[in-house]
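Appendix B, record 7
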Amino acid sequence: MENYPLLWRRSAHARKKAGRPPRLSVDAVVTAAIRIADADGLEAASMARVAADLRVATMTLYTYVPSRADLVALMIDEVLLARDLTAGGLSWRERVGLFAGRTREMFVKHPWLTEVSLVRPPLGPGTMAEREFLIATMSGIGLPTGEINRAAVAVTAYVYAAAREAGEDARLSRVSGQSTESWWHERGEFWEKWFDVEAHPAMTALWNAGGFEDEGQTAFEYGLTLLLDGIARSVE
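Structure tokens (predicted):
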């Protein structure tokens, strides 16, 4: 069960505690945990490690964040909210592009996100801001009521799948110290000695025609464009 008072600690409904200001804050704890996870992975952001980083006793940390599960939920929602999905004067396609680009950047900047499931996200400001942004975007283009949420979910599913792949690439590069480009380059022997061109004629023909160029971000944008074209046709 989510710790709503912590997730919504900055909301207008949150009550301010009376008395002397605490030495630490929940924000400071979450910021430290994210910094550690960015550098060394999610597992490294233990309560003990975060406490040491903040120079307090581990038990002191529990007075701010009751459990590791609460801490991870706060970390997730914080990076979701940091995308800052506020946009004025943009077309609906540009708004989706903003969401897609910043979500991809989020996974690359915080590759530990690939280690958690966002199927059941923390119901905090970050999650709600994302849903509000996408539903508002789809609500303004003339879709039937029954298709608005489906379109928003379809965009979310595509963007997150591609963004997680980019995050996984960043995580593997960081852990191994080797880029994916270098990893493929080391496997040149496979293509020269083991790849059977007769057993894979379609791949071979496409390679000879230069069809394997312009992957990565270009492929991501290509797929998103096709998805948005389909949504636009549904409106028409």
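Remarks on this record: The domain at 89-235 is CATH 1.10.357.10 (Tetracycline Repressor; domain 2). The chain has two domains: 4-13+20-79, 89-235.
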